[in-house]
DNA sequence: TAGATTCCTCTACAGGTGTAGAGGAGGAAG
DNA sequence: CTTCCTCCTCTACACCTGTAGAGGAATCTA
């Protein structure tokens, strides 16, 4: 699908160069398409940004169904997969920051797995599920952000390895604990 | 100081419009300076970005000295002040993301209070201070990020209020616990 | 096969952006 | 007062970006 080729290229671009690198022509080049293609599918830049964010949300939706018998483990595996898909996750941070000044983007990103995590935390019987859920999500979000963006990048075990999953699982368990 | 006027305007701009809004002329306008001023002080865009990040680091350095008698409380107050200075913190996230593809920026941002937090955690006698410090920092970073950027913005109590500080303090205490 | 329709490519253009340098105002040094 | 120097403002220009539309190729319909 042409649209997906375009939006996938957009994701790579944003991960590598930031939102500033997201221009119609740059996407054409990155995707190996003739000049003007991106502009034809997404006439305005606003449309391009929205397409990019929609694609991100779609890709993330496919990611995971949590396993009720191994909550911490399945969450850890999801987190690890997000570390592995470094560019996608970086692009997501850029998108979230962008949503700060373009609220339309927020609705596109709602109902992602991250929202599910909050819901999950609520079900685990904390005394104050609202806050516990927020703290839990914050912790996971922070863990990812810290590893990918903070502290001179890539702290901790190599993503995609069993050690990485184990390390993340420990952290998730700690966070789930009341 | 002219340079500070310029870089302060840059920070506002980035917070409000993202890195894409950071152009020489936009800074001139935002700072109410005659066109060309920013370009005179920061000839290239790279220089402008570096100036902006340096200013951020400087401002943050002034922020806090942790109180040894009330570790959680003083950290909570710092976090709260970062929530209050919303634009500065948003600009910081943009800068961190930018540092992902421009490593020179990382060295400018090193030795910020956030690094101190890691060091602090190490001193609190966890069995694995390295990881505990990382988790601690991740949690705080995530808490901030979640409140400011994630989840449709501003969850939790109004920043700057005693309730906000109390809420943060609870979270910090939980995170400090082994 | 002929015509209609969709999809794609190319080209155009007005504005914005990065960067450079000429020149002036005003203070410092002699 | 004259000369020099620093700091600032203005103008210039090549290039990039967003956006539009004309036309052609490919596909579908009858």
Automatic annotation (TrEMBL), chains A, B:
<keyword id="KW-0238">DNA-binding</keyword>
<dbReference type="Pfam" id="PF17940">
    <property type="entry name" value="TetR_C_31"/>
</dbReference>
<protein>
    <submittedName>
        <fullName>Transcriptional regulator, TetR family</fullName>
    </submittedName>
</protein>
<feature type="region of interest" description="Disordered">
    <location>
        <begin position="155"/>
        <end position="178"/>
    </location>
</feature>
<feature type="compositionally biased region" description="Basic and acidic residues">
    <location>
        <begin position="164"/>
        <end position="178"/>
    </location>
</feature>
<dbReference type="InterPro" id="IPR009057">
    <property type="entry name" value="Homeodomain-like_sf"/>
</dbReference>
<feature type="DNA-binding region" description="H-T-H motif">
    <location>
        <begin position="23"/>
        <end position="42"/>
    </location>
</feature>
<dbReference type="Pfam" id="PF00440">
    <property type="entry name" value="TetR_N"/>
</dbReference>
<dbReference type="InterPro" id="IPR041583">
    <property type="entry name" value="TetR_C_31"/>
</dbReference>
<dbReference type="GO" id="GO:0003677">
    <property type="term" value="F:DNA binding"/>
</dbReference>
<feature type="domain" description="HTH tetR-type">
    <location>
        <begin position="1"/>
        <end position="60"/>
    </location>
</feature>
<dbReference type="InterPro" id="IPR001647">
    <property type="entry name" value="HTH_TetR"/>
</dbReference>
């Amino acid at each position: 699908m042409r649209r997906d080729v375009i939006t996938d290229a957009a994701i790579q671009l944003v991960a590598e160069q930031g939102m500033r690198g997201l221009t119609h022509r740059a996407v054409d080049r990155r995707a190996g398409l003739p000049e003007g293609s991106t502009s034809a599918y997404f006439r305005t830049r606003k449309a391009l940004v929205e397409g990019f964010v929609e694609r991100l949300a779609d890709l993330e939706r496919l990611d995971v169904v949590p396993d009720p018998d191994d909550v911490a483990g399945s969450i850890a595996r999801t987190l690890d997969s997000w570390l592995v898909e470094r560019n996608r996750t970086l692009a997501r941070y850029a998108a979230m920051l962008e949503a700060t000044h373009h609220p339309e983007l927020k609705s596109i990103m709602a109902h992602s797995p991250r929202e599910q995590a909050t819901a999950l935390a609520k079900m685990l019987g904390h005394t104050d599920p609202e806050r516990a859920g927020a703290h839990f999500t914050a912790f996971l979000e922070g863990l990812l952000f810290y590893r990918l963006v903070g502290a001179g990048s890539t702290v901790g075990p190599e993503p995609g390895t069993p050690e990485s999953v184990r390390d993340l699982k420990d952290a998730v368990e700690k966070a789930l604990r009341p």
